Amino acid sequence: MILVTGAAGKTGNAVVRALAAKRATVRVLVRRPQQAPALAALGAAEVSVGSFDDPGALRQAATGASAVYHICPNVSRDEMHFALAIAAAAAANNVKRFVYHSVLHPQIEAMPHHWQKLQVEQMLFTTGFDLTILQPAAYMQNIFGAWRGIVEDGVLRIPYPAETRLSLVDLDDVAEAAALVLTNGGHGGATYELVGTPPLSQSEVAAMIGVELGKTVRVEVESVEAWEARVRAAGMGEHERVTLAAMFRYYSEHGLVGNPNTLGWLLGRAPSAIARFISRAKLR
Fold this sequence. Notes:
The protein is an alpha/beta fold. The chain has helices at residues 10-21, 36-42, 55-62, 79-92, 112-124, 147-153, 171-183, 202-213, 224-233, 238-254, 261-267, 274-281; strands at 2-4, 26-30, 46-49, 67-70, 97-101, 130-136, 138-139, 155-158, 165-166, 168-169, 191-194, 200-201, 218-221.
């Protein structure tokens, strides 16, 4: 039995699908009962309902599990608190295998949500788990946030310069890698960077999208300040807004680049390219 925490989000959904495809028995932890049917449809055999603030619910969720795949809610201010809670529940149930969903280059202090994940990694090193850490790059799926503008206006709107170089990864590849390390031996003690593409400028990304859509797609740069005003008006919380703005400012100065060799080795094939991802996205 593999327990997947944070399973109701897009990452959790993808990991559950990938594990189910390998015929693994999956239990998911979700916060609300209403989330259970969708996860059962993805292949979850069992659903535990509870929050990271409920030690009893966490211990129950970890009962009988052979491994935990821990996903913290995105940009959470409680990253360490939640990781300590699920680690304690796993230890109380003698779970040996623990896989942590981290982020590419967590050692960058200027991006607070990256830095928090580094602190969690350091904590997990002291637990005695058979530990694997996965560090994915920014998801190609984030392009969906700008999809309407791409399709309707031929514009990829971003809050950092067009020349910013980022390495991306298809979430489906991340999920496949997660399923591989959870269902195969030999990955304990490893930290794997999961990167799908070489560093690409945003102009290159726009051009690749345009080729697949058969239209010209250009980059339109929005200032971080304008982005903050827009998402504040849309109701985004203060912590998430400030954290993401810090990330965009870091991207503007330095980008975020990685190397796809490790993911290719894990998958036994080349990671998905943007062209393949966009060709699938057209079917949405």
